[in-house]
Structure prediction request, 180 residues.
Amino acid sequence: MIVAPAARYTRTAVVLHWLIALLVVALISIGLYMTDIPRNTPARGWYYNLHKSLGLLAACVILLRVGWRLRFNPPPDSHALPAWQTTAARINHALLYLCLLLMPLTGYVGSSFNKYGVKFFGLALPHWGWEDPALREFFSGAHQLIAGAFIGLILLHVAAALYHLYRRDGVFTRMWLRRS
Prediction:
């Protein structure tokens, strides 16, 4: 079913969406890889610092995206969609935003409770805590738990996007980089 093009997100919203998507894919990939690197090796520290730096960069872009979203309303929902799809999309988006905000927060706070702290591409950032293995483990566990939920939400989001691309119902093109 091919329908008339739906209203699109602003160009800034689209660029921020895809930039966040690239950063999140990189962060998930690095995060899954780095946990298997043996402790007390240079490679482990390098990947952890890269993960933290990209996480902070992502946090900045996420805050820009949230600010943009609060300032500019999204395009209206497509009336061609069943109500359950619109509701499911809204719930998934809200949970994605929640994960986008909680992931860097739990990562940064958790890193503040170890002796290494956080470096942003080599620049040491302020500690919010002190060396405390129990608190570090708590926030690290929260970070990992949220990551699992986040990955599931992302997979659902991608599956829905591919469904709409296949259906050619105009929903996918609302957030695509180019007009089709």
